[in-house]
Amino acid sequence: MASVAAAPASDTSAPSLKASAKDCATNGMAEWDASFKAADTVIELAVGRKAKPDLTNLAFGTVFTDHMLTIEWTSDEGWQKPHICPFRNLSIHPACSALHYAVELFEGMKAYRGADGAVRLFRPMLNMKRMLKSAERASLPSFDGAELLECIRKLVELDQDWVPQSDSASLYIRPTFVGTEPSLGVKKPSRALLFVILSPVGSYFSTGAKPVSLWADPKYIRAWRGGTGDCKMGGNYGASIYAQSEAVELGCQQVLWLYGEDHQITEVGTMNLFLYWINEDGEEELATPPLDGIILPGITRQSILELTRKWGEFKVSERYLTMADLRRALKEDRVKEMFGSGTACVVSPVGRILYQGENLFIPCLGDHPPLASRLLKELTDIQYGQTPSDWTYLV
Amino acid sequence: MASVAAAPASDTSAPSLKASAKDCATNGMAEWDASFKAADTVIELAVGRKAKPDLTNLAFGTVFTDHMLTIEWTSDEGWQKPHICPFRNLSIHPACSALHYAVELFEGMKAYRGADGAVRLFRPMLNMKRMLKSAERASLPSFDGAELLECIRKLVELDQDWVPQSDSASLYIRPTFVGTEPSLGVKKPSRALLFVILSPVGSYFSTGAKPVSLWADPKYIRAWRGGTGDCKMGGNYGASIYAQSEAVELGCQQVLWLYGEDHQITEVGTMNLFLYWINEDGEEELATPPLDGIILPGITRQSILELTRKWGEFKVSERYLTMADLRRALKEDRVKEMFGSGTACVVSPVGRILYQGENLFIPCLGDHPPLASRLLKELTDIQYGQTPSDWTYLV
Q: For the modification N6-(pyridoxal phosphate)lysine, which residues carry it (chains A, B) (predicted)?
């Protein structure tokens, strides 16, 4: 059992829960009265228990636990009771609006087992707030984020044997929310399904914590202003796989997404991006692109900004960065490190960027760049309970 | 029974079937040897038959016929045999890549019953070619479009009683292709499902053939260069519903999608757009935006271009149009008509555009603008078999 950790004052990038109440009104529901309640959860236990997998060399997100959470919504009846049931296939109408029009969104969270045996989540209310923002953009109904978090806590508690006894593995939590409108008009769905599945995971990349190589080309654009790049909606991801395949064909692991005529640096694959350098004005700076509508507001991104601002050791900026800035800084030996951040990978150093036929090599100091390594340790120490923090939420 | 109508020489906007063979190679399959074959189709008949609905006031795509087509693919075993089975829910793994990452695409076609009782499709190989192009962009496997068309023909033949006896109704055909990868890595799916469902439909808009009102605002952007706007992928549609709701709140029926600093006119809701006017040079012109990567290559769009070019009565252009162009032309009384085109609506006149707080009224001559009406008649006469044409394909 646990209560929701109070969000620090700096948690302002996600919309407030109050703001999201607007959609409830739009959907003709009273505010939080209309949400499902965790206390109503109906639990149907699995008859047997599956064997736990060996996490060494296990591909990300391929094995699932014994149970899942499902919550149905209809425009006529509102939210139904949450159900925890055995992990099983979903029965989906062939005209389902998630399959035809990508009325869908997801979140990514992890449950970590500490050396003390306790299971913790990391800043989960930020995921709930971002999920509500995505739901509004996807024209899906709103709900009380604290109630969903409590449902997720119950689910993880039930399947807690699946949280690995390891400080390099965790239980990945995938809340998913899809429109299940059973008709072909392109419109706000009258039915929806929120479900949560759990998957024990090791490292996201098959290369482990080694620096990743990136392909940067303006041919494919991940997101644009007026689109959905700042929400965790399915359409952002499916559209990226084609470019990702081209990156692999060119000998790179991930895509570095560029934007605009000036080839702004935006994100990496499915991660936010940080550049640690001596900037144009000679200042030591950790920089990441600002949340201007095309950047996913990552929770690891936000945590890195907050941690490093608290350190006060160098300038920390949300600012635009272009490939020309990077290339010039590399020529002038001003780049210290570059790394991606995300729930799946935590912190992942960048070693090489293929851009306009040229390989740009980023300093990595024997695969362990100091700032990325320090941030990885500070974050995982909080996540695994080595460092007490109000960012953790006990299951 | 019927053979595929030879594609006219002007059918060049869709990629050739040969070009799509590239992905077969990418997926490690031999060219067309790897496609499913219509001759292998296994048919499981429905036990009963559902009652046919009254099409008056029936919402678009809400009722489905007795049977559906499903074809499964795995990277290990390639395409399985096509199955025609009773219309029923799909059993979908909760980690399915279509539900999480919108690895999905669709097509829209119609079967029309002529006064002669025969059932016809309209230029269906163009749908097959566009579907193959979408599949490549979505990282889904390729197949032989002629084989899928023959499977669809079999399905429509089986459910032919559902093709309405009416020249204002038809049987809407929805081929859908989704990734069914049962794991959470963002990657090319190792499993996929192609399915086709059929729905008897009347008019797409609840207002029937009356002119539609549009909301034009650069706040939301449908598609951008380097994205997926020229493919019929689900993500393009789910992202549009939010803007559509805002249009309705502002008293308009659809969104007029703008692009760029100069507010280029691109598409309307889920339709391509045409402007019939006296252009800046005093020429009578039918204009529609060019296929530059952000425009869906509509089959009705292509057919209207081909028909009007054959008439030779006025200039027919694929060119950029901005809101400033339109506003000036309206002030100078140079706009004759504006209309949307698409499979669902065929031709749909535009009556009003709300732009920057101002209502722009488009001439509609008592709801029946002459060019839109003439095109609607020419197209439906072909579709319903009143005019013989190599654009029709007999079921």
A: 232
ipTM confidence: 0.91
Kindly give the residue spans of alpha helices, DSSP state H, lying in B15-85: 17-26
Domain termination site, one of A142, A172, A204? A204
**Range of B64's domain?**
7-204
Amino acid at B386: Q
Report the range of poorest mean pLDDT among A240-249, B352-361, B367-376: B367-376
Q: Assign residue B172 the CATH number of its domain.
A: 3.30.470.10
Domain with residue B257: its CATH number is 3.20.10.10
Mean pLDDT of B142-171: 96
Hey, are the CB atoms on B186 and A97 less than 8 Å from each other?
Answer: no
Which of 317-346 (A) contact B at CB < 8 A?
none
Q: Please state the φ and ψ torsions of residue B227, each to the nearest 5 degrees.
A: -105, -145
CA-closest candidate to residue B99, choices A198, A228, A179:
A179
Amino acid at A25: A
Residue A14 predicted with pLDDT over 50: no
Q: Which two tokens stand for residue A236?
A: 């952002």
DSSP code of residue A32: G
CB burial string B373-388: b at 16+ within 10 A, e below: bebbebbbebbbbeee
B22's CB contacts (< 8 A; 6+ apart) are B136
Select the residue of A26, A95, A97 nearest B197 (Cβ to Cβ): A95
Contacts of B198 (CB under 8 A, 6+ apart): B64, B65, B67, B68, B111, B155, B156, B159, B162, B171, B172, B173, B174
Mean pLDDT across chain B, nearest whole number?
A: 91
Please tell me whether residues A199 and A273 are part of one structural domain.
no
What backbone phi and psi angles, to 5 degrees, belong to B256? -95, 110
> Are A42 and A82 within 8 A, CB to CB?
yes
User: What is the tens place of the pLDDT at every residue in A268-299?
Assistant: 988 999 999 999 999 999 999 999 999 999 99
Which chain B residues are within 8 Å of A182, Cβ to Cβ?
62
Residue of B nearest to A183 (CA): B62
Average pLDDT for residues A321-342, to the nearest whole number? Answer: 98
pLDDT at A26 over 80: no
As for how many domains chain B has, the answer is 2
A84, part of any domain: yes
What is the rounded distance in angstroms from the CA atom of residue B6 to the CA atom of residue B390? 7
pLDDT (0 to 100) of residue A203: 67
Predicted pLDDT at A58: 86
Structure tokens at A309: 């601002």
B294 with B374, same domain? yes
Kindly give the pairing relationship between strand A212-216 and strand A346-355.
Answer: parallel
Which of the listed residues B204, B232, B251 is the one where a domain comes to its end?
A: B204
Q: B226 and B293 in contact (C-beta within 8 Å)?
A: yes
CA nearest neighbour of B178 among B238, B97, B95, B68: B97
Residue type (1 letter), B306: E
* Structure confidence at residue A340 (pLDDT): 97
Q: What is the mean pLDDT of chain A?
A: 91
CA distance to partner chain B, nearest, from residue A75 (Å):
15
pTM: 0.91
Which pLDDT belongs to residue B8? 38
